[in-house]
Write a structure and sequence with these properties.
With 320 residues, the chain is an alpha/beta fold. The chain has two domains: 208 residues, DHBP synthase; 86 residues, Rossmann fold (3-Layer(aba) Sandwich), CATH 3.40.50. Helices cover 29% and strands 18% of the residues. The chain is built from ten helices and 15 strands. It has an eleven-stranded mixed beta sheet, sandwiched between helices. Strands 12-15-13-14 form a four-stranded parallel beta sheet, with helices on both faces. α1 packs across α5. The longest helix is centred in the last third of the chain and has 16 residues. Bound molecules: threonylcarbamoyladenylate and magnesium ion. Threonylcarbamoyladenylate (TXA) binds next to β5 and β6.
Length: 320
């Protein structure tokens, strides 16, 4: 069973030995390994039960580490790093040939970000290599926002969980890439809405094109059924949904108002979408393990972090 602790030196020693360690970030917990150690990276895929076609994000502790994993910077990349790093923004950039293909699932690009959490920053700056890390959940399930969430699902498979408390952002990073969809007129493309609001990114690099979902996505975070609880989840107007599922034991996820149900979780009674995002995954997990039969969620305002919340709820309900 994994040890849960705050010992950065112990985490660093395990990572140097090629082990997989769960680390806190401001978004969600990550399942980290030395990005240049193929065996260690392979272990991440095994622990997560993640298909090999789904590339990992590389985490750096300093801007100077970017050239170790990235071949060249497209226009605007520097500005985006300057504006949002450290923070919840992942950039898809041309991959450095020395970075193992396993990390990027053979793609010619690599997702890179600099997380903003004091423990992960200190850890990354202690280590002589960047860390490849997906979210620390079994593939397809809701991402973990506490050390205990990680322990509940992956504790038996990893030696150490670095405990940085509850994640302050609570949804994964926003992912943008240069020109992938529009080779003739390259432009920054949104692959996943997340912790950095799209509106803020557009102030730096102009309007983003949106990547379309496809059966073989270039960002599998875009797979329809993803981030999913085990229970049925439906998203829509709560008054209508509550009537449709009347008679069932219902768990409700609401933005700011209470609804009459067996369980009602209000994510942000002050209407702050940042607070709602922070609470989302913990509430999803909680309702998923409760005695409710069905989870009903309302749509959030589609702005700021509300876009990330709606995206995760939509994917969590896909195919239900
Ligand atoms: O906030 C986050 O981004 C968290 C923390 C731990 O940093 N990480 C995270 O990783 O959410 P993961 O693996 O759960 O999601 C990363 C997404 C995946 O959907 C993956 O397919 C996509 O990023 N991705 C990674 N590299 C890519 C690339 N080169 N091209 C396109 N998509 C990529
Ligand atoms: Mg994930």
């Amino acid at each position: 069973m994994a040890t849960i602790g705050t010992d950065i030196q112990q985490a660093a020693a395990l990572l140097k030995a090629g082990e997989v360690v769960a680390i806190p970030t401001e978004t969600v917990y990550g399942l980290a390994a030395d990005a240049f150690n193929e065996e260690a990276v392979l272990r991440i895929f095994r622990v997560k039960d993640r298909p090999a076609f789904d590339p990992l994000i590389v985490h750096v502790g300093r801007i100077e580490d970017v050239p170790k994993v990235v071949r060249a910077l497209p226009p605007g990349a520097q500005e985006l790093m300057g504006a949002f790093w450290p923070g919840p923004l992942t950039l898809i950039l041309p991959k450095h040939p020395d970075l193992p293909d396993l990390v990027t699932s053979g793609l010619d690009t690599v997702g890179v970000r600099m997380p903003a959490h004091p423990l992960s920053t200190e850890l990354l700056r202690t280590l002589p290599f960047p860390l490849a890390a997906p979210s620390a959940n079994p593939f397809g399930y809701v991402s973990p926002t506490t050390a205990q969430h990680v322990a509940d699902q992956l504790g038996a498979k990893i030696p150490y969980i670095l405990d940085g408390g509850a994640c302050t952002v609570g949804v994964e990073s926003t992912i943008v890439g240069w020109g992938m969809n529009t080779p003739n007129a390259p432009q920054w493309t949104l692959y996943r809405p997340g912790g950095t609001p799209v509106e803020a990114i557009e102030k730096v690099v102009g309007s983003l094109t949106t990547a379309v979902d496809s059966p073989s996505p270039s960002a599998p975070g875009m797979l329809e059924s993803h981030y999913a609880p085990r229970k049925q989840l439906h998203v829509g107007p709560l008054s209508t949904l509550l009537k449709r599922y009347a008679g069932r034991s219902i768990g409700v996820i609401a933005f700011r108002d209470e609804y009459p149900a067996h369980r009602c979780e209000v994510l942000a009674d002050d209407g702050d979408l940042g607070v709602a995002a922070r609470n989302l995954f913990a509430v999803l997990r909680d309702l998923d393990s409760s005695d409710c039969e069905v989870i009903l969620a309302e749509e959030f305002p589609n702005e700021g972090l509300g876009r990330a919340i709606n995206d995760r709820l939509r994917r969590a309900s896909a195919g239900r």
